[in-house]
């Protein structure tokens, strides 16, 4: 066992410790920078998710995406861009505008029952949205980024169900 170390060994040990402490300090600074960048990235992602959620809110202009009509055991699906009875259905065939002032306008560019304009108000109750027209109240559902209106008239074999899906 050696009790005395040479000056060279002492200098080597001190120098080595300084190099290691300098290395640790540099690594610590790097780690802090990485951590700061990571936290910034997480904050930006959270902000983007929040903005995306805001951009898919209930209000705004919605256009027809798909319509499903069921009657007497027969179901007909009408999709935008597809042909139906010799006519190609466009997204602006039915436009729903939901305004911040709690009003809505549903405009149908198609002939027949889906033509014309319907106006009313909307409300939010316990996280659910409803269209109100006179004394009638109908729930409007959000399914991801799709807004859905559903209505059934009649009962039994004479029932007619309509489901209209909209996208922004």
- What is the N-to-C order of secondary-structure elements (H for helix, E for strand)? HEEEEEEEEEEE
Give the overall silhouette: globular
Please, what is the average pLDDT?
Answer: 75
The biggest sheet, with number of strands, parallel, antiparallel or mixed sense and barrel status, is: 8 strands, antiparallel, barrel
Nearest-angstrom radius of gyration? Answer: 32 Å
What is the number of E strands? Answer: 11
| Proportion of strand residues | 35-45%
User: How many DSSP helices?
Assistant: 1
Straight-line distance between termini? 82 Å
Sequence stretches where pLDDT stays below 50 over 5 or more residues: 1-21, 37-56
Estimated structural class? alpha+beta
Percent of residues in helices comes to 25-40%
- Strands ordered across the widest β-sheet: 1-5-6-7-8-9-10-11
What does this structure look like?
With 168 residues, the chain is α+β, with helices and mostly antiparallel strands. The chain is built from one helix and eleven strands; from the N terminus they run H-E-E-E-E-E-E-E-E-E-E-E. It has one helix at 7-55, and strands at 60-71, 74-79, 83-84, 87-88, 94-98, 103-109, 115-125, 128-133, 136-143, 146-153, 160-167. The strands form two sheets. It has an eight-stranded antiparallel β-barrel with strand order 1-5-6-7-8-9-10-11. It has a two-stranded antiparallel ribbon with strand order 3-4. Strand 10 (146-153) and strand 11 (160-167) form a beta hairpin. The longest helix is centred in the first third of the chain and has 49 residues, at 7-55. The radius of gyration is 32 Å and the shape is globular.
């Amino acid at each position: 066992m050696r009790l005395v170390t040479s000056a060279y060994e002492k200098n080597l040990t001190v120098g080595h410790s300084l190099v290691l402490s300098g290395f640790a300090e540099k690594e610590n600074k790097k780690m802090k920078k990485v951590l700061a960048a990571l936290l910034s990235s997480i904050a930006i992602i959270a902000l983007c998710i929040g903005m995306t959620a805001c951009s898919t809110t209930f209000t705004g202009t919605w256009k027809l995406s798909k319509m499903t009509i069921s009657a007497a055991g027969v179901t007909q699906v009408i999709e935008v861009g597809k042909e139906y009875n010799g006519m190609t259905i466009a997204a602006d065939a039915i436009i729903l505008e939901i305004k911040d002032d709690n009003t809505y306008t549903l405009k149908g560019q198609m002939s027949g029952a889906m033509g014309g304009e319907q106006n009313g108000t909307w409300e939010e109750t316990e996280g659910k949205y409803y269209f109100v027209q006179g004394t009638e109240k109908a729930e409007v559902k959000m399914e991801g980024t799709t807004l859905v209106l559903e209505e059934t008239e009649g009962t039994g074999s004479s029932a007619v169900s309509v489901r209209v899906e909209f996208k922004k």
